Amino acid sequence: MSLDAPVPVADMPSLGMAMGGPLAGLSITAMLYGISVPQLVIYYRRYPNDPPLFRYSIVLLWILDTLQLALISSALYFYLVTSHGNYQALLKFTWTLRSQNTVSRVIVVGIQALYAVRIWKLGRHFSTVLLWCSYLSVAATLAVAIYAIYASYIVQNFQSLSSVSVPISTVFATTAVTDIVIAGVMCFCLHKGREITRVSSTIKIIVTLMRLVIMSGLTTSVCSFLVLFSIIAWPDSLIFLAFDMIISKLYMNSLLAMLNYRKIPTELAINLGHPVSTPGSEVIHLLP
């Protein structure tokens, strides 16, 4: 349906059904963004000597995260303020919504790629098969993300979203599976590291890291599945956009939390083949 043609009153979207979900998503997104900022400061203060790949990637991802929040805010400002009272505008799929979807997909794939790099550094000592499982999962997420981004630029209005439900569902299903694979492989690597050390303090920290990995993987996977559920349960609403807005912030916070909690005693570093500065060093970095 053309946006220029009049839409029957009966077909007009309810403001609550149309913008209620995205508005709630913006509120939670802003809150999660606020949590990520102090974590970012802690990371750069605590680990100034991390490899350049991680230091530069983190700041780039945070800039993209900031951009996504700005795009979401701009989109909702258009719908709720600029177009106040113009129900025709509620049907329009703005370029800011398309762009925030693109930025979100880049953030998710980028963070999963960083996890894959970490798995390579740890897992190469244990299982090549599991390494390739994580790599292929990330590659699959990248492929379907490109597909979903392309599909989002085909859609002209919200009434035609049903025509791209397959790529939307596919990208979130693949993302959830990849999260589960990454969490499983990282837990396996940490469990192997736990087996080769007898230091109780090291074991406690490894157990805590395993819990963080599991919680991070479950949180992002559940959010992806909520997107799928909302698409199926409320196909005529934009509730799924609320979870879509949140997911990249969950990734950013989980990555920063993982990076900021990664000190273990020297023994495990030696067993895993990591260099240690001095024989008396108290701690080394598990990540990166």
TrEMBL record:
Pfam families, per the entry: DUF6534
Ion transport as UniProt keyword: no
Keywords per UniProt: Membrane, Transmembrane, Transmembrane helix
Transmembrane segments: 20-44, 56-80, 100-117, 129-150, 170-191, 212-232, 238-259
The DUF6534 domain, residue ranges: 175-263
InterPro entries: DUF6534 (IPR045339)
Protein name per UniProt: DUF6534 domain-containing protein
Organism for this UniProt entry: Armillaria ostoyae
Source organism phylogeny: Eukaryota, Fungi, Dikarya, Basidiomycota, Agaricomycotina
